[in-house]
């Protein structure tokens, strides 16, 4: 919790730019959603042009994941990804300040029976999330479906942004758990709560595993298997993605719950990690432009591993 002194310090001129940006984003939520998506598209096209280092990372990732596609196809996919990123900024504002009614009206839920099946056992549910660009949109809706989802998050480095988002989480979710507080996460599961986490970004700590992701070894977080071994909760894969019409105009959101994982964990953390990576791949292949390709998913974690992002290996 922020002290009065910390809150007072946010009035300092060094935070004025952030206050302005946050205020502008909040105002955008009052615009028609179709306008927000068009603005997000323009923002994404601008990001694609200006953020050269991120564009380079995305291109490397896409070449590793989709070697069967031509350069022209991957270039188009990269541009579409940045457009999705720009629209993801608008999605974020909607998830923070948009009304529950508006979110519900824009959303289609698929596989709700799988969530209900998991909740009925009252043994805790771990929602295995994935980093698609509309990730945060699903949070408020799932929280209503589960009587307050407990969300695992990475704290922001900017103290003002962390202060603002903490207040939003307190309003939107049942509980917010920093990703370093593993004990709190396990306690929530053992008490029968629904916990939402997304462990699919590159993981380079000492317990990471080198597991194929689209056929290329990548540092992988095996925490899902270990958490379930301890808590005995149900694991339900979950994604939130944007839907488009045949003219590539955004039409709403899809919240998809997959069936609870059976025989999980299997007793082999390597096999469990292979299984969860394959689940992610299946969803990414269906919505390739919306997966978060701008982080170093294949970053080396061993001295002998290939550094795909080194300049000499640049695509």
Per DSSP E runs of 2 or more residues, the count of β-strands stands at 9
Average pLDDT score: 90
Protein structure class:
alpha/beta
CATH topology: Glycerol-3-phosphate (1)-acyltransferase
**What's the number of structural domains?**
1
Question: What is the alpha-carbon Rg in Å?
Answer: 20 Å
Measured as a percent range, the helix fraction is 40-55%
Tell me the β content: 15-25%
In terms of per-residue confidence, which ranges show pLDDT below 50 for 5 or more consecutive residues? none
Write down the secondary-structure element order.
HHHHHHEHEHEHEHEEEHEEH
The coarse overall form would be globular
- Top-tier CATH class: Alpha Beta
Instruction: Sketch the major β-sheet.
Output: 7 strands, mixed
Work out the oligomeric state of the chains in this entry.
single chain
Q: Going across the major beta sheet, what is the strand order?
A: 1-9-8-2-5-3-4
Distance between the termini: 45 Å
What CATH architecture label applies?
Answer: 3-Layer(aba) Sandwich
Count every helix, treating DSSP H or I runs of 4 or more residues as helices: 12
Write the layout of secondary structure elements.
Blueprint: H1 4-9, H2 16-28, H3 33-50, H4 52-65, H5 71-97, H6 100-106, E1 107-110, H7 112-120, E2 125-128, H8 138-145, E3 150-153, H9 159-172, E4 175-178, H10 182-190, E5 194-197, E6 209-213, E7 216-220, H11 223-231, E8 234-244, E9 250-257, H12 269-286
Parallel strand pairs: 1-9, 2-5, 2-8, 3-4, 3-5
Antiparallel strand pairs: 6-7, 8-9
């Amino acid at each position: 919790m922020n002290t009065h002194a910390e809150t007072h310090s946010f009035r300092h001129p060094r935070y004025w730019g952030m206050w302005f940006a946050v205020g502008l984003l909040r105002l955008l939520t009052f615009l028609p959603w179709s306008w927000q998506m068009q603005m997000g598209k323009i923002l994404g096209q601008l990001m694609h042009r200006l953020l050269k280092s991120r564009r380079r990372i995305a291109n490397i990732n896409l070449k590793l994941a989709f070697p069967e596609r031509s350069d022209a196809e991957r270039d188009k996919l990269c541009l579409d990804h940045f457009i999705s990123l720009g629209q993801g900024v608008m999605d974020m504002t909607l998830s923070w300040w948009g009304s529950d009614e508006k979110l519900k009206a824009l959303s289609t839920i698929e596989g709700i029976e799988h969530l209900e099946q998991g909740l009925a056992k009252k043994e805790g549910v771990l929602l295995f999330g994935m980093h698609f660009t509309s990730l945060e949109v699903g949070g408020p809706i799932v929280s209503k479906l589960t009587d307050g989802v407990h969300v695992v998050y990475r704290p922001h480095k900017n103290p003002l942004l962390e202060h603002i988002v903490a207040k939003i989480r307190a309003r939107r979710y049942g509980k917010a758990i920093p990703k370093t507080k593993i004990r709190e996460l396990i306690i929530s599961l053992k008490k029968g709560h629904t916990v939402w986490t997304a462990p699919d970004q590159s993981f380079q700590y000492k317990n990471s595993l080198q597991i194929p992701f689209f056929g290329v070894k990548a540092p992988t977080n095996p925490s899902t298997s270990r958490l379930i071994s301890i808590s005995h909760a149900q694991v339900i894969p979950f994604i939130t993605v944007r839907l488009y019409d045949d003219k590539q105009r955004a039409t709403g959101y899809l919240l998809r719950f997959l069936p609870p994982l059976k025989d999980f964990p299997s007793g082999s953390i390597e096999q469990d990690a292979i299984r969860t990576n394959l689940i992610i791949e299946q969803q990414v292949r269906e919505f390739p432009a919306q997966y978060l390709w701008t982080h170093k998913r294949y970053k080396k974690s061993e001295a002998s591993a290939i550094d795909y992002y080194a300049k000499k290996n640049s695509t």
